[in-house]
Design goal:
Length: 451
């Protein structure tokens, strides 16, 4: 039997003006906050612990346990910071969630803040998504006017202010400590840990940093109880989550389902690979998770099963690539992204991603030299586990996994350009426009020719 969808976060995304407070209230909105305010904060934390909710921002750290790491109150401020920076290639769940149902996040912020004893929460939104920033500002304004935020929330005596902050558009500002530096007005670069944010986070005060989807999952858990949540998913990967299908799929979009669903089941619902073509490779959790192939179609998409099969569940960003795609080209584009987004703080990532990009461009152009594949793997080996933050590790995933499954395509790059083996226009989803480098013929002008 196939796993059915489980629309919770996305339950009324197609309702008329789904983003307004009125629509939210008409669908049972703020019931979770009402329940939370009738309990003491420790009970709310315990409910979230019991639910087994794991952080939806990529690493899958248990949310309730993270809240429990905050030291005992000392009379000073404690903060909740919502990570809404969503910038990883393929990851596209938080932005639709905030566009379609921003009150769900605001309610989650109110409950989480109450649970952890925070009176000032921040939502850090990726800078480029101005439309989301505006929608959140409006949602927060509506929530203040209705007494769900501000002084004495719903007559409970609990005060909460929420600041929506737009970043300037840097992938590294999604890394939680770089985000905190950026929020403080500094250049967004990761901090040395420990101390962890729970002890010394924003303005060196105890801070919880949680992903949008994690926080938005809280209201229904509190309203319906931990057992309702654990009735979905698997034993160690409980609940529901957004699975974002993109790329060569007939009906791309957000499919909310229990964790543990398989790509085969999701593809069945999404009309399969476009044009009846064959699946070549896919990412289970965004561009920083090792790629999978057809052989992984039945791998349950939960944290444990995906890890056992050699990748990571990450952000459940399922990017689908069919047989027309050059794996070398895809990996080169991702690597260009990482080289561009490397913050430069540590040498393995700053230098390593630069060199990976050069070697890959050469292979893509059919100008690879003997030893290039070893150079790639060697460079990855020198980054993995040696970089200051997880961006460096993530940059190596697509390369090492692609060489593992498609080594012959990298070897072909010693003599034949990827564009001859896999014409880009065949895999383009929209009208294909050659890049500047492609127009100028070989990629020699990019520096692809030299070590
Ligand atoms: C380079 C990089 C970018 C990241 N980007 C995001 C992001 O956009 N959103 C997010 O929630 N987490 C992102 N993370 C993970 C955060 O550091 C952090 O683990 C997460 O916000 C914790 O929330 P959670 O426990 O609710 O998952 C990123 C991590 C790295 C290394
Ligand atoms: S791994 Fe990359 S992004 Fe992270 S600190 Fe080092 S240079 Fe910056």
């Amino acid at each position: 039997m196939s796993t059915p969808l489980a629309p919770v976060l996305s339950a009324f995304w197609d309702a008329e003006r789904s983003w307004t407070l009125d629509t939210y209230l008409a669908h049972g909105g703020y019931e979770g906050l009402r329940v939370a305010l009738s309990q003491d904060p420790a009970t709310v934390v315990q409910t979230v612990k019991d639910s087994g909710l794991r952080g939806r921002g990529g690493a899958g750290f248990p949310t309730g346990m993270k809240w429990g790491f905050l030291p005992a109150p000392d009379g000073g401020p404690r903060y909740l910071v919502v990570n809404a920076d969503e910038s990883e290639p393929g990851t596209c769940k938080d932005i639709p969630l905030m566009m379609a149902s921003p009150q769900l996040l605001v309610e989650g912020v109110a409950i989480t803040s109450y649970a952890i004893g925070c009176n000032h929460a921040f939502i850090y939104v990726r800078g480029e998504v101005l439309h989301v920033y505006r929608r959140l500002l409006r949602a927060v304004e509506e929530a203040y006017a209705a007494g769900y935020l501000g002084k004495d929330v719903q007559g409970s005596g609990f005060d909460l202010d929420v600041t929506v902050h737009a970043g300037a558009g840097a992938y590294i500002c999604g890394e939680e400590t770089a985000l905190l530096d950026s929020l403080e007005g500094l250049r967004g670069q990761p901090r040395l840990k420990p101390p962890f944010p729970a002890v010394a986070g924003l303005y060196a005060r105890p801070t919880v940093v949680n992903n949008v989807e994690s926080v938005a999952s809280v209201p229904q858990i509190v309203a319906r109880g931990a057992e309702w949540f654990t009735s979905m998913g698997t034993e160690r990967s409980a609940g529901h989550g957004l699975f974002s299908l993109s790329g060569h799929v007939t009906r791309p979009g957000q499919y909310e389902a229990p964790l543990g669903i398989t790509l085969r089941e999701l593809l069945d619902m999404a009309g399969g690979v476009r044009g009846g073509r064959r699946l070549k490779f896919w990412t289970p959790g965004g561009s920083s998770t090792p790629i999978f192939t057809e052989e992984h179609l039945d791998t349950p998409l939960d944290y444990e099963s995906v890890a056992a099969a050699g990748s990571m569940l990450g952000t459940r960003a399922l990017q689908i690539f069919d047989e027309t795609t050059s794996v070398v080209r895809a990996v080169t584009r991702w690597t260009e992204f990482y080289a561009h987004e490397s913050c430069g703080k540590c040498t393995p990532c700053r230098e390593g991603t630069y060199w990976l990009k050069q070697v890959l461009r050469r292979i893509e152009a059919g100008q690879g030299t003997q030893g290039d594949i070893d150079t790639l793997l060697d460079t990855c080996d020198n980054i993995l586990g040696r970089a200051f933050c997880a961006l460096g590790d993530g940059a190596t995933s697509c390369i090492t996994s692609a060489v593992k499954y498609f080594r012959e395509e990298f070897e072909a790059g010693m003599h034949t350009p990827a564009s001859e083996l896999f014409p880009p226009e065949a895999s383009a989803l929209f009208e294909y426009t050659p890049t500047q480098r492609e127009r100028s013929g070989a990629l020699a002008g990019s520096g692809a020719g030299g070590h």
